[in-house]
Amino acid sequence: MSSWEEFLANQIFEAKLPEPVREYRFHKTRRFRFDFAWLEHKFAVEVHGQVWGRGGHTSGAGFTKDRQKINLAILDGWKVMEMTTGQVGDCLAIGWIKEYFDKFVEK
After folding, report:
1. CB-based contacts of 78: which residues, under 8 Å, 6+ apart?
2. Secondary-structure class of domain 3-104 per CATH
3. What SS3 state is found at 105?
4. CA 86 to chain centre
5. Which of 82, 89, 97, 85 shows the shortest CA–CA distance to 16?
6. Left (φ > 0), alpha (ψ -120 to 50) or beta: where does 77 sit?
7. Which CB contacts under 8 angstroms, 24+ apart, belong to 61-66?
8. Is 0.70 topped by the overall pTM?
9. 1-48: per-residue pLDDT in tens?
10. Exposed, middle or buried by CB within 10 Å (0-12, 13-18, 19+), for 8?
11. Which helix or strand (DSSP H or E) is residue 94 part of?
């Protein structure tokens, strides 16, 4: 887990949102995992780092694998938000997560 994921985990805690499962393996046969998953809502968050460099998510193979992961999740009924580490740092990510819970999760 990256320090950015830890940072977002702390933001989730401070916002008093439900606690997510970390590194949740959602697919029955593939090793795909979500960074954060709220199982009862089938809602997940993925944090992508190194979007400006030559990281795993920005290579052709990595980008293609990520699209497969997200599409398989959607076909299984998951709602997935993807964000960059910069969006976590700017607090945009936690704002989007809070908005999701405000709009779509009964209190």
Report:
1. 26, 34, 42, 43, 44
2. alpha beta
3. coil
4. 14
5. 97
6. left
7. none
8. yes
9. 689 999 999 999 999 999 999 999 999 999 999 999 999 999 999 999
10. buried
11. helix 92-104
